[in-house]
Hints:
By secondary structure, chain A is an alpha/beta fold. In chain A, about 45% of the residues lie in helices and about 10% in strands. In chain A, the strands form two sheets. In chain A, strands 2-1-3-4 form a four-stranded parallel beta sheet, with helices on both faces. Chain A has a four-stranded parallel beta sheet with strand order 6-5-7-8, sandwiched between helices. Chain B is an alpha+beta fold. Chain B contains 15 helices and 18 strands. Classes of the chains: A alpha/beta, B alpha+beta.
Amino acid sequence: MIPNNIADEFDQCIKCGLCLATCPVGKELFLEKYTPRGKIQLAKRYAAGDLDISEHYRDIFAKCLLCGACSVTCPSGVKLTDVLVGMREEIVRKGGIHPNVEPAVQSLLVNHNISDEDNSERGEWRDDIKELPDHMYEKERAEVVYFVGCISSFFPMVQSIPQNMVRILGAADVDFTILAGEEWCCGFPLIGAGVPEKMGELIEHNIEQVKGLGARKMVFSCPSCYRTWKEYYNTDLELFHSTQFIQRLIKEEAVSLGELNETVTYHDPCDLGRNGGVFDAPREVIESIPGLTLVELENNRAQSICCGGGGNLEMADSGLSGSIARNKLAEIERTGAKTLVTSCQQCIRTIKGKVRREKVDLDVLDITDLVVRAMSDA
Amino acid sequence: MMLDPIANEIRSIVGDEWFLDTPEDLAVYSYDGFLPEFKPDGVIVPGNRDEISKIMRVANREKINIIPRGAGTNICGSSVAREGGIIITFHRLNKILEIEPENMCAVVQPGVVNADLQKAVTGYGLMYPPDPASMFVSTIGGNVALNAGGPRGVKYGVTRDYLLGLEVVLPSGEVIRTGGKALKNVSGYDLTRLMCGSEGTLGILTEIILRLVPSAPAKATLQAIYSDLDDAATTVSAIIGAGIVPTTLELIDRTVLDVISNYGGARFSKEAEALLLIEVDGEDVLVEAQGKRIEEFCKERGAVQVERANTPEEAEKLWQARRTAFGAVASLRPNCIVEDATVPVKMLPAIIRKIVEITNKYDLQIGVLAHAGDGNLHPLIMTDLRDREEMARVDKAMEELYEAAIGMGGTLSGEHGIGIAKDRFMRMEFNQASIDLMRGIKRVFDPNNILNPGSFL
């Protein structure tokens, strides 16, 4: 059964097709079924009993980044993402989890992380840090918990992010800790996989861990963890994305930044910008670095185009994800900037992966990479 | 239903991948931006003109209906399989073939998106003026087939005015070329313009030659609020009467302004009964002077508030109300019918008064948006298709509106097209001889009546 709130959304669609203009998947695959309007109408037809959930039907809904571009484009205010996520849930209820996504879900439920590794290895990114304090950032009590996230913990390409974060927080004398092996996946991939009901154990565990530390604030370098905590964790903790937290530290003059003479462009990650509402913090951090010039992408802020790494698409259809990354790279190259800054480890993986394969002359940095560079010059 | 051997023959022409007949594909090609839906028997996504020609030969031989569809954004139902048949789409024919600044023209395939062309020619200091609200999605092929207009129409005209030539596949499969890159061309009947606005009933466009114009270096954007709708309407006539041709002259009435405010958009003063959004473009000195004169016109004719944008950001802010209008209105009731009866610009005050009268008479919710500068109205009828009693009143109201518009020297449709939305009203605007002539033309092109049958005529 399709929940009423989902039906209310697709009943509101007037089929104008304006969402076709901003959907990265629709623009790449162009057939109507892959466009947001097409998917909304397919949902409506299923609810009306005119269509069954076939394998083809399931694959159509898997070809979506859940980036939310359609929702902000819709002139009638249809919350398309709610329908797209809701249909993934319905598809799982009828036919099980998408076979390409199933292994990740199973591993996540067993290992409590997305990477199929033993969760006790979650803190191994610390091995490369030269002057590691004795507590190794694992304190018994702290005011702030830094939630690292699965990808930054386990994927070497982006382990510089937590390494930077502890350096920045340390330099600013923030009383913080990490959860290390007791940090479990926030549950975000389960939403895209259509099984949000399986998040319960993860949420409970994470909240219990944080509470046990007496923390009042949390900082996330992953926009999707940040958003998931905001939307699915019922907590009175103060939640910050790294860009917001660093922006505060800069304002309070807790970190000092030296000059960097570079031109950079900035990519708004979907879950931080459009879906999380954080547009200004990263820009203020970038602009507070003396000498740095920011040139905006053609499509920025709420209009930012997904890098191709959203919605579990990489698992369901890696080729499509790659084509969308190629389009993103082309947009970045048109700015003329040789450095791309973003604030999401998944965007970095997707874009940097493409840059390496295509041998493009582009430096891809997380905003924490940039801040650490500027700190070294201070 | 289509027979398997024919489907296989089509597959052998376009390749298995490009003949779609899964339940999912048939469902999503059963609609466009209008209300009724009809499930087609298949969908073809051809890759070139020769494939289209071969398909038409098969379709003509087997008498299978073929319905061309661009992006499916039209709101008159001109791209649905009303009498069954196969939808043909142009997703793969999306190349801009040439941009020639020396000839001020571009050659494009039908699947090119309007806004993509606009963006591509900007680099040459040129513009392609037709700017339908669907421009970020709708295709040039669809724009030509529907003779699309847009807010810039007051000054720049519509698609027809930028059409130089075409390549067309006829229902027989034969290929013809009309017009060319020459700006002047009077040889023979004007088949180019006959195709324009033919709503996919005469032939399939495979190449389009478009005229471009230099882009204007400057523009001025103004917004005027009125406490009396009549004052707004007379300002429109005054501006046009004074020989100023704005690029845009949009009117929004109180009903729509209220909806916009409630929707969380811009807020307007309580006394606001109408809003005019006015834009002029051209050389900066001229634009400056015209901007000032328009401001005076508005004030002299009772505007209670006039705002003039000094920066592109301010201009964008003034456009905000107009841009959110349709979505805001559409979200109010289950359905929204966007009307587009059009009158000579001088009759604007009269037709707006008529709409207010009709709204009260039939107890309906109708808001008025208008491309006021060219008399192109967009009454927005907020309704519920499931409510038969109300729909009967809507039908009567529309009929009365068309009669009034045509009586004033206007037309059923300014820019949306006839399709299946207004075919039953064609007799109001055309006498029997005209309709016979149009049907005769259709028979010459398409003797077996396989191209978009059931639409338009």
